[in-house]
């Protein structure tokens, strides 16, 4: 069974975890002499239904929990321990995903108004390694939501990673060292990879005089007896569990195709639009990962039959792309002539792409007749109807949202899928020309999109329509 172990998965926890315990005292009023921390709200969200188990023990490999592969198959616990079956392991290939999810959730809380970045005075974030702080900072920087270094506090380098106790030990040290002053806001951020849970809490430092405010609120019978955050139904995902063995570090909300390397300037509308589109992209990636064909490509299980099916269905969408872009161009008014030119240029770039798909299909053993005569699937029918409907409206600038999603697939996904298909199916560039081409060239289209967003033609109403169209197309 040892041959199936990934040794580093156990060594990572062995060297990255420290012993420690921490707790907080919760009371209904502030301390009479020292500063206290008021809990304004706590948010916790789990994505366990969408990811494989990250931490495990008692089995040789988490993907093979079968008879003969567990600690129960050995005569004694001692034998199981000698076989290293009792070591706690962590799938280190999945760890970057929890960083991405943490930043995504941070952006969602900003969108909902729960977090106002400018009002935060301190950030206490639990991370198991300095490496992960760098990844969080990188994603926040790319989302143009950087947090000044002086606001960060951690004692990882002196207390180590004590797991669930870390945030309490961190909070105790920061509070008792005098770091917090009355009136300051403290954000706690705890990403937990064990079951892919992301937690946030907002605290306010209050002085002893806050007792008077608390007593007055109690006397008035106001919200003292109620939760500060009323219960509300959660967002229940309908996605099935995602089965994959080597998850990539997916760019998501903070690192969407648009946000990467893009400076939205000081215009709050443009900054909000970039944030909204980033969240659309994060949701789209999550749905994409749950698609069976993508799961097979990313887990190394794809077949030539799968690839041919993908090409047949892609062609039916791609052949319509230049047509709806051209129709949209014909409905753009003369006052927006530069945008009309952009749409026409884009249509010119795209109108032969379906022929690459046909050549790829024939190169892997299919016939031109098969791919040409494949009927549209239901999703393609719905997408085409929607796109032509929107393209027929006056000045359909909301289609920039559609381009964001579609070109994002090329920029962030197509090239990776091409390389995965080549490796798994022993193909060459000749058989994956469509995906390879878009992986190399779609960034030019994003430059055009960025130029439009900062040109001054996009107002609040257009921005809302861009986001809505992006959401529809992402479905």
Question: Can you tell me about this structure?
Answer:
By secondary structure, this protein is α/β, with parallel strands linked by helices. The protein folds into 2 domains: 26-52 and 92-225, Peroxisomal Thiolase, Chain A, domain 1, CATH 3.40.47; 256-474, Heme Oxygenase, Chain A (Up-down Bundle), CATH 1.20.910. 49% of the residues lie in helices and 8% in strands. It has helices at 7-16, 77-82, 95-111, 130-142, 156-159, 166-176, 210-220, 268-289, 292-298, 304-330, 337-350, 353-363, 368-373, 378-391, 399-425, 433-441, 443-453, 460-474; strands spanning 36-46, 55-56, 89-90, 122-125, 152-153, 185-192, 197-206. The strands form 2 sheets. The protein has a 5-stranded mixed β-sheet with strand order 1-7-6-4-5. Strand 4 (122-125), helix 4 (130-142) and strand 5 (152-153) form a beta-alpha-beta unit. Helix 10 packs antiparallel against helix 11. The longest helix has 27 residues, at 304-330. The protein is flat and about 75 Å long.
